């Protein structure tokens, strides 16, 4: 995908019109699908045969097997195991340079564990594997029309309504879902998993997924960096609710160096793809993880687009919350309200859902303390055990005496009611003067009071320690009290 930035710099010229039976006509060089500045893509879409879009149905009764459905043969729908009294989940992949859409199979399994659904996976890899990204963009409309045709056939043959459909789609597939939703009014729900950004961000709503394409549209953004930084997702809000976990940019666990990615994958090309696509595909894994996440609620806070505001704890108080992923439809806003932004932090590996805490730390004793540069971690101990070390900031930062700091951290363990915590810190040696290096003088930190707010429990806990200085790399215990002395 690193070649994508180069490819998108060129303006493409080959505009014409093409018509396909049952799907309609597609003009490639007219608005809104062509714009000389923002969307210089006028490739004609591939033919239906070249696209080879396939549909596979799975249900619990099929016990791991699947049935092919076809828009060319209505009997495949009539004689299938499709149950009209069950809700239907539709899964669509996006831009892939290879054959790795294993996540669709994994998501199907998670859905069938959660409930007895009709699950239809849509495979249009021939429309992306043999094409560059800009050509695949041109195919989105035809695949969207093909998906709409299938869903309309199911409605007619099985006597079901569009509100029973929930389309879950990644990358370019999210815009395929948007096209289908524009054709079929009142689709129940579309979940966009990091909708593709290039040629779609800030474009006409008729071109892309937007809130008008279903009764409820929820979007998870995980790769919103600009294209020159290899970001593949949309920065713009585009649903009724838009979730931006971990800022919507750099996902934890995706900072592995490319050599490490190759080693982890086992193959050079696969490792390169994993390295580049890690942030982009994370949205699919977050949603998949949320389907059966147990007691972990994937709680997110309605907040500004500035992740720093969220990460510094400014969105914890008197702020509406919503659950990202599977249960997001329980937080559908009032009619006419859209593009509500929610922030949260997740863990760096599956299961990704974590329990979020806000820590209020006050650097005290201005007579002895100095401004310092360092980073802190906290480990909570409660009814359910002891958490891992929770970093309060991703990197070294400056701290001033007699100043309160708010940090949001995430733990894999819900410690329930914490009784104590352990704080540990390390300093940035490069910040200190040579005559204050460790072999001469170790800096000391003065903290005796920490307030812990649990996002999930909606409780606040006061922790106090001694007034003695805290040396670097030495854990200091703080105990829960009603009031610090």
List the helices and strands and how they pair.
Elements: H1 4-7, E1 17-20, E2 24-27, H2 48-51, E3 54-58, E4 67-69, H3 75-78, E5 88-92, H4 102-114, E6 118-123, H5 126-129, H6 133-158, E7 165-170, H7 172-183, E8 189-193, E9 216-220, E10 241-245, H8 258-265, H9 268-291, E11 299-302, H10 307-311, E12 321-323, E13 340-344, E14 355-363, E15 372-382, E16 385-386, E17 390-391, E18 397-399, E19 403-411, E20 418-427, E21 449-454, E22 459-464, E23 476-480
Parallel strand pairs: 5-6, 5-7, 7-8, 8-9, 9-10, 10-13
Antiparallel strand pairs: 1-2, 3-4, 3-6, 11-12, 11-13, 14-19, 14-21, 15-16, 15-17, 15-18, 15-20, 20-23, 21-22, 22-23
Helix pairs in contact: 4-9, 6-7, 8-9
InterPro entries: AB_hydrolase_fold, Lipase, Lipase_LIPH, Lipase_N, PLAT/LH2_dom_sf, TAG_lipase
Binding site for Ca(2+): 208, 210, 213
Subcellular location: Secreted
């Amino acid at each position: 995908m690193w070649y994508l930035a180069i490819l998108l710099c060129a303006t493409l010229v080959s505009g014409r019109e093409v018509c396909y039976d049952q799907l309609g006509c597609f003009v490639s060089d007219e608005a809104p699908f062509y714009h000389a500045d923002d969307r210089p893509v006028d490739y004609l879409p591939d033919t239906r045969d070249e696209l080879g879009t396939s549909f596979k149905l799975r249900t619990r009764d099929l016990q791991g097997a699947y049935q092919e459905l076809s828009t060319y043969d209505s009997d495949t729908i009539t004689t299938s195991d499709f149950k009209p009294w069950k809700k239907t989940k539709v899964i669509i992949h996006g831009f892939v340079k290879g054959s790795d859409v294993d996540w669709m199979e994994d998501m199907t399994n998670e859905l069938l564990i959660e409930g007895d659904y009709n699950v239809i996976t849509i495979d249009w890899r021939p429309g992306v594997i043999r094409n560059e990204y800009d050509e695949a963009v041109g195919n989105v409309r035809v695949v969207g029309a093909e998906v709409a045709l299938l869903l309309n056939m199911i409605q007619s043959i099985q006597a079901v309504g569009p509100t029973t459909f929930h389309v879950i789609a990644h990358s370019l597939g999210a815009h395929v879902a948007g096209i289908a939703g524009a054709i079929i009014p009142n689709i129940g729900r579309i979940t966009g998993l990091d909708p593709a950004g290039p040629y779609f961000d800030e474009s006409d709503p008729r071109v892309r997924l937007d809130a008008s394409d279903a009764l409820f549209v929820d979007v998870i953004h995980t790769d919103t960096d600009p294209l020159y930084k290899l970001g593949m997702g949309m920065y713009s809000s585009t649903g009724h609710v838009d979730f931006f976990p971990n800022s919507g940019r750099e996902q934890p666990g995706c900072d592995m160096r490319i050599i490490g990615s190759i080693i982890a994958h086992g193959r050079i090309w696969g490792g390169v793809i994993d390295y580049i696509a890690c942030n982009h595909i994370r949205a699919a894994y977050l949603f998949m993880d949320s389907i059966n996440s147990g007691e972990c609620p994937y709680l997110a806070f309605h907040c500004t687009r500035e992740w720093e505001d969220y990460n510094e704890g400014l969105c914890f108080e008197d702020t509406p919350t919503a659950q990202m992923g599977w249960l997001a439809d329980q937080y559908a806003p009032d009619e006419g309200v859209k593009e509500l932004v929610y922030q949260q932090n997740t863990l760096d590996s599956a299961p990704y859902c974590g329990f979020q805490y806000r820590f209020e730390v006050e650097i005290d004793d201005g007579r002895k303390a100095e401004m310092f540069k360092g980073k802190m971690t906290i480990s909570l101990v409660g009814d359910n055990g002891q958490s891992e070390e929770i970093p309060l900031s991703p990197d070294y930062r400056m701290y001033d005496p007699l100043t309160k700091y708010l940090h949001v951290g995430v733990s894999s363990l819900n410690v329930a009611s914490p009784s104590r915590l352990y704080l540990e810190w390390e300093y940035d040696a490069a910040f200190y003067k040579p005559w204050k290096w460790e072999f001469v003088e170790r800096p000391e930190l003065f903290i005796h009071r920490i307030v812990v707010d649990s996002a999930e429990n909606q409780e606040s806990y006061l922790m106090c320690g001694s007034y003695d200085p805290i040396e670097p790399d030495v854990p200091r215990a703080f105990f829960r009290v009603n009031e610090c002395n």
